[in-house]
Amino acid sequence: MKEKIKNLTKEKIFNYCIKDFAKNGYSNVGIRKISKETGLSTGAIYYNFSSKEKIAWFLYDSATELVLNKIKTAIKKSTNGIEAIKSIISVLFQLTEENLHLMEYVLYVKHKDFLPGVPPICSSKPFEYIKRFIKTKIKEGVFEDMDMVIASSLIMGPIIRVIQLKMDGILKEDLNKYTEPLFNGIVKSVYRNQI
Amino acid sequence: MKEKIKNLTKEKIFNYCIKDFAKNGYSNVGIRKISKETGLSTGAIYYNFSSKEKIAWFLYDSATELVLNKIKTAIKKSTNGIEAIKSIISVLFQLTEENLHLMEYVLYVKHKDFLPGVPPICSSKPFEYIKRFIKTKIKEGVFEDMDMVIASSLIMGPIIRVIQLKMDGILKEDLNKYTEPLFNGIVKSVYRNQI
DNA sequence: GTCTATACACGGATAGAC
DNA sequence: GTCTATCCGTGTATAGAC
Prior knowledge:
Two copies of one chain form a homodimer. Chain A is 69% helix and 0% strand. Chain A is built from nine helices and no strands. The first copy, chain A, binds a DNA duplex through helix 3.
């Protein structure tokens, strides 16, 4: 993602805002603060983004796109449906460890409070992609035949929960430690061929 | 809860704010708007609450207290650990159907953006109560022996996920319909004595 | 206890120099 | 393309009459 941002000023704004929007909330971060913290003038900021809202949209698009790509490659690399679940957990935990602010911006921020018409995050590209994957695996008989709402909640619910515990500061440990045990629990709830 | 609010003005403010804070976000709801929509003057509002933040605290305390009480009675009424899980799901779904705004305010709103020092919602009274319950049941051998982080995520993750789908408007159906199938999935993931 | 009027700070955004 | 200075609206909160 960062590679795609040609413009140094835009990158500075991106890096600062994703951190501060996630930490303190969009409305608590003013243009003046962004200006002060990035060392850029308000003029420079408004030259690159026509409004504060556009900054938030840019963050939203970049962040969801990055998560989508990670998920895609994780699923594609997997040889079977059950392994893919582990890859999804692993890649989301990894991403949280590497780039907590980005994951906070994706999963924790209430975008609809300041981005008019934004889809709920569960309907954003990465999560729609996962839903389609689950649907396929149900059809193929890998996962038990169940309502999509139930299936996606049983799979994604616990994963998101753990990530949020990390974001809330409840969990200090490296999330990768939880990949295996969480996977085991999730599999039991949806996998067809119980051991 | 409403019964406890002796003061009519306070009740008006409560009813309006819990709805609008949840829907549009705390910072997007000004005193002038609250005044206009409740038919009260700003003077009356500030007579009852010394600041806007105090309104938010009042909502937070009342709402978490109500959820805590519902959870408590649900667990106490249950004869065994596994039935208690169903009761928890049921009562939370019921509450969402009856009082969506209240549940939105509890589960969806990012309190830390405007309530300095507020604990993350997973550390609020109702959720701490559930955690203690889970811990007990693990000790008693009802649930499999697993890390508390994993156990509580496998149980609460899917429940919260479904509720958030409702809050996001993805789910139109009555949540009670999902109690049974979700319960079945969750039980498989944590219950010790598989069938 | 509730009203109206108002103080005052801070928000986003723009203009125009460089 | 970035700077500084400034406009104007809206935010929370208060004062003082009733």
